[in-house]
Every structure is written in structure tokens, then in C-alpha cells.
Design brief:
homodimer; DNA-binding; binds zinc ion; binds manganese (II) ion; about 160 residues; 3-stranded mixed beta sheet
Chain lengths: ~160, ~160
DNA sequence: CGCGGTAATGATAACCATTATCAAGTAAAC
DNA sequence: GTTTACTTGATAATGGTTATCATTACCGCG
């Protein structure tokens, strides 16, 4: 008897929803429909920032799903390989994942080295600087990561 | 030979080698002298870019050292905690380490997602952009990481 | 529909970088 | 030289991630 909250965190990022985008991309790729994958896609769609595979798994299980941890990892790997998911390494040995928005909108992370908290930030000048570096180097740059490490407000 | 600077920041060791800088810092911290640590410090001093703990260990063993892998990890952790070593996470589940130069000079990395190659690059405009972000956010920023991912010249 | 081929699943074993443990070794204080 | 406790190297343990495998179930085809 689990009363479900009517309160839903829909993180509508303006244009096309990531959920629909990902579903179409998976269909186009020719994968079969499965409840395990649908569940992980739904979980990702509801995230504002990054979450680890185990966090996603725990959340799904406590919501009544019987999905296995292996399916969570498999789906994340699949989506990551398709460019639908961004993988973030905060340096604690745990990979975190968040949806890659089709319009290119994204953010980077502030990591507290004391308590492990992760916050997001966005900065156009930084993006521009990265873009210029990418054009200059002898390397085809597909993606980039930025992490600022230090102490959060609470730990400072 | 121990010229002591009473009121100086950590950045005014211009021209001094990282090897000497690290040795002085360790002595000041009060650690005992040990061959295992000296060997790791020497190995770090001799590398231009990052290397994993296991790479450092293998290199030392093939050079005749009998150092154990645990001592390599221990020394890297000690130096990292003292701010003498920078830890880099390229996303393959292996931490890499490189000396932190006392004058603040540093670089960031291009990571080939095909062959795993790591190259270094340096960009002042990018550093400036990061500096501005660090001043703007409600977070004390001590360090930062940038990784550009894609395909190296050979894999392109 | 009802097969049947096979992608997908979940439990679990294996993997592997890193960390903890501990008896033995050793630098430095006394 | 003796003492103290820091350090070491081997090895066990840890924990996130990946591989394995028997079972399930999606879906094209007749
Ligand atoms: Mn960016
Ligand atoms: Mn920098
Ligand atoms: Zn914190
Ligand atoms: Zn390459």
C-alpha cells in the first residue's frame, strides 16, 4: 500500500523532452522495447543533475521495480554509447550519469572534496573558451568535462 | 641550504625543481626519510605528464627497485594531500598522477576515447574563464580539471 | 493467433584498481 | 646502543563495474 505522491518533478527544459528524444533514438536504433530500459530512461528524465548507477537502482527498487543492477549499468552504457547520456567522474571512484539534452544545453560541476556534494554551474564564457581550444588542437573533440574542486558553502 | 620564507605564499619557488620543492615540503611536514618515498618522488619528477600508480610501480620495479605497490599508492596519496601531486581522472577507472608545479604552471588533457591516449594542452583564455567562474560561484574553489574527449590524430 | 529466433533480463560470479591489515624493518630521537 | 613509532611490502579485503548464463519475453513471420 504505497501511496504515490501526486507531486511529480517534471524537469521540462523548454523544447523537446529528453525522454521523447531518447525513446525515438532507441526505436530508430532497432532495440526491443523492455520495461527495464523504459524504467531507467524515465529515471534519467526525472533527474536534474547526475546520479550514480547504484543510486538510480536503489530509487527504482524502492519505487517497486524489480530491475537488476546489471540492467541499470547496461542501459546506461547503451545510452552513453548513443550520446544520450553524459558520464561524469567526480573522482571518488563512482561514475555518475545525467541525460544529454539534444539542444546542447549542459552544465558542469562543483565538487566538494570534504563532503562529496556535487553542484552544477553554467558559464558561457567558459564554453566559448573550450570551443576555441577544441578548434586549435590537433584532435577531434567530441565532448568535454570541467570540474571545479574545493569546499561547498556548508564545509567552508 | 634551507632558506626559509616566513610570509610567502606557496607560489614563490620560481625556478626551483619540483623534486627539491617536494623534498623540502616533506621534511617540513616531519616525515621520515625513506627510500620508497624518495623513489616515487624521483619517478614523479621525471614525468612530463600523468601516469597511473601501477605504471609508476612497474617502471620502478623494472629499474631494480623492490618497492611494493602499496607504498606507491601511499606516497601518491600523501603527496596529493599535501598539494604536491595532481590527480587526473580520465574516465577509464584508473587514477593518474602528475607533479603539481609550485609556480602554478599546469596543463589539461585531451583523451582519446578510442585508444585511450592522453595528450596535454595549455590555454590561458581557458584558465582565465575558469578563474572568473571560480570567483562567481558560492564555493571555495581550490582546483579544477578540464578534459576534452574525442579522437586523437591516429584514431581520427 | 502461435511459433521461434534471439535480444534482454536478473542473479551472481568474476574482475581489478584501490585500500586496509599486519608483522617485520628502519630512521631518528634519546 | 636502546627505544619508539613511522614506514614498508606482502597480502587480504573492499567495492564499483563487468562478464556469464540460464531464463524470460519482444516481435517478425507464417
Ligand atoms: Mn561545457
Ligand atoms: Mn587550468
Ligand atoms: Zn561540502
Ligand atoms: Zn587515439
Amino acid at each position: 500500500m504505497s501511496s504515490q505522491h501526486a507531486h511529480s518533478h517534471d524537469h521540462d527544459h523548454g523544447g523537446e523532452s529528453w525522454d521523447a528524444h531518447a525513446t525515438v533514438a532507441l526505436a530508430r536504433k532497432g532495440t526491443r522495447r523492455s520495461s527495464a530500459r523504459d524504467t531507467v530512461v524515465a529515471a534519467l528524465a526525472g533527474q536534474e543533475c547526475c546520479a550514480s548507477a547504484q543510486e538510480i537502482h536503489s530509487r527504482l527498487r524502492s519505487d517497486g521495480s524489480t530491475i537488476g543492477i546489471a540492467s541499470v549499468y547496461r542501459t546506461l552504457e547503451l545510452l552513453h554509447g548513443m550520446g544520450l547520456v553524459t558520464r561524469i567522474d567526480t573522482g571518488d571512484g563512482v561514475a555518475r550519469f545525467e541525460p544529454t539534452h539534444p539542444d546542447g544545453a549542459h552544465h558542469h560541476h562543483l565538487v566538494c572534496t570534504t563532503c562529496g556534494a556535487v553542484e552544477a554551474f553554467q558559464d558561457d564564457a567558459l564554453e566559448e573558451a573550450i570551443h576555441r581550444v577544441a578548434d586549435r588542437v590537433d584532435f577531434r573533440v567530441d565532448a568535454h568535462d570541467v570540474a571545479l574542486r574545493g569546499a561547498c558553502r556548508a564545509c567552508r
